[in-house]
Predict the structure.
Amino acid sequence: MTDKLDMKRIPRHIAIIMDGNGRWATERGKDRSYGHQAGVDAVRIITSECVNLGVEYLTLYTFSTENWNRPADEVSALMGIVLTALEDEIFMKNNVRFQVIGDIRRLPQDVQEKLQETIRHTENNTAMTMVIALSYSSKWEITKAVKNIVLEVKEGKLEPEHITEDVINEHLETGFMPDPDLLIRTGGELRISNYLLWQIAYSELYFCDTYWPDFNEECLHRAIFSYQSRQRRFGKTEAQIENEMRIKG
């Protein structure tokens, strides 16, 4: 499939909802935590391949604010897996910078410390930025942004008429990176699950039945090929886009 990809049109930013770990494990007669551990292997594979393809940002939905409602033993296992994954040399081996978005104050102290350590350790890496959304949800993120904007208005630092889309972008967790070009969801579900709702306004969406532990390089290539087969119009007409392409030559 790689030979079918246009290497000049690789998505700059790919966001992924890594779904299906638990069902993958259950179908194999294993505990759900076994599926989450297998999912880490898929993260390694996809991170390396994204670097190879020239993707600049990879954002992975790892743990939502709603996931705190899962059984305590599963949450505990997930936190342990996060710690193990952050020990992985994939960041330095692939020259990957690490970042995190989410309400990390809710995480165990050892996880918070490891996150910050990994951010510092990889801050000079330049091949790609890998972002994990951990204890994250869009509704939490947007609510937080609104509160901060209101506070700035109240303190006289910002006039209400100066609140623009750019101002809102700057107050979101993702203000340091561009919006996703492509959003992938594995596992067969057809929903967004409170993930990057503001940022994916014009992202291309790709859903597949493959459970995340089985999502490999070929699956990624199929998603990118689908993305490249579409015309991104951003609210314009097809004729306008084609005319702009002719002008660009």
User: Anything to note?
Assistant: The chain has a mean pLDDT of 92. The two ends are 28 Å apart (CA to CA). The beta strands are 13-17, 57-64, 96-101, 128-136, 182-185, 204-207. The chain has nine helices and six strands.
